[in-house]
């Protein structure tokens, strides 16, 4: 494990998956991340080069079909540490013979963590390392926040919302939507995730705070440039995932063509794209 710390925060990052595995609030002496287990064996996986489910777990590019599982492969690879000090680390994966079997592109995907007083910054940086081919991709975050000591938690949104959640059918967007809350508070009530994740794309808010039953903010996640947001947990599990995404699962009517996939990003040779999340302690 890679350990980063300052006077406010202690973190652990696993080089396998570049996964944040601990976010410890030193002032309040509490762990903010779900610590894995039988209900869900992960903490905060990094999603790349797709987000969510592909229709039939396949896509096509230049007339050839490729198979890829939910959320891509980046969460299941070992990363190289490019740079590290007491409060920051840079981790990287690049394409190789194995990744090109399911994803025929040249790339470098970096996950960068930095501590800045009461804030942990997590930056994603994607670079097209090809000299001739456009890179098509999505990426996103999947951190699970611990709610095990109090089941009366809620999410407080930055602004009052009237956003609709896309309905899912076997992990794919069905084309239908539902109103799951109005205002700026979403109570984490029993049954909320019985039909899978809540998926938002028409929300105004670019931050969400996790609040306990006493109204105390445990952590605020800011995601200023991510157009999609998932909220998920296994039914009645003692955690909640707040998932900013640059991309989204296929719809049930998807053509499978990668270049026309909703939410897909594109980079020309030599270009890069970065986005940053901010985990803010109270």
List keywords for this structure.
single chain, 282 residues, mainly beta, Beta-galactosidase, Chain A, domain 5, 6-stranded antiparallel sheet, globular
Explain what the structure shows.
This protein has 1 helix and 25 strands. The protein has one domain (2-280): Beta-galactosidase, Chain A, domain 5 (Distorted Sandwich), CATH 2.70.98. With 282 residues, the chain is an all-beta fold. The two termini are 26 Å apart. The strands form 6 sheets. A 9-stranded antiparallel beta sheet has the order 8-9-10-11-25-21-20-15-18, with no helix packed on it.
Overall mean pLDDT: 96
Number of helices in the DSSP assignment: 1
The percentage of residues in β strands lies in over 45%
Order of helices and strands: EEEEEEEEEHEEEEEEEEEEEEEEEE
> Main sheet: which strands, in order across?
8-9-10-11-25-21-20-15-18
The assigned CATH architecture is Distorted Sandwich
Roughly how many Å is the radius of gyration?
A: 18 Å
The residue ranges in which pLDDT falls below 50 over 5 or more consecutive positions are none
The tally of structural domains comes to: 1
Number of strands: 25
The global form is: globular
Q: What fold name stands as the CATH topology?
A: Beta-galactosidase, Chain A, domain 5
Distance between the termini: 26 Å
Helix proportion range? under 10%
């Amino acid at each position: 494990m890679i350990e980063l710390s300052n006077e406010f925060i202690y973190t652990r990052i696993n080089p396998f998956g570049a996964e944040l595995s601990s976010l410890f609030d030193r002032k309040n002496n509490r762990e903010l991340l779900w610590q894995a287990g039988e209900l869900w064996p992960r903490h905060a996986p990094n999603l790349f080069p797709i987000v969510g489910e592909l229709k039939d777990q396949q896509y096509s590019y230049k007339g050839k079909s490729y198979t890829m599982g939910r959320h891509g492969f980046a969460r299941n690879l070992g990363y190289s540490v490019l740079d590290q000090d007491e409060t920051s680390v840079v981790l990287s994966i690049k394409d190789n013979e194995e990744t090109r079997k399911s994803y025929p592109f040249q790339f470098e995907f970096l996950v960068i963590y930095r501590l800045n007083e009461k804030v942990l910054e997590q930056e994603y940086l994607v670079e097209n390392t090809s000299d001739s081919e456009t890179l098509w991709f999505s990426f996103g975050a999947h951190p699970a926040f611990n709610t095990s000591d109090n089941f009366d938690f809620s999410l407080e949104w930055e602004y009052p919302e009237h956003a609709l959640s896309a309905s899912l059918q076997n992990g794919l967007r069905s084309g239908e939507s539902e109103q799951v809350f109005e205002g700026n508070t979403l109570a984490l009530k029993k049954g909320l995730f019985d039909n899978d994740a809540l998926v938002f794309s028409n929300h105004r808010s670019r931050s969400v705070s996790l609040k306990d039953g006493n109204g105390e903010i445990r952590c605020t996640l800011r995601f200023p440039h991510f157009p999609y947001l998932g909220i998920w947990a296994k039914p009645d599990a003692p955690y909640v995932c707040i998932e900013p995404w640059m991309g989204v699962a296929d719809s049930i009517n998807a053509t499978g063509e990668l270049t026309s996939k909703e939410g897909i990003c594109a980079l020309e040779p030599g270009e890069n794209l970065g986005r940053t999340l901010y985990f803010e302690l109270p």
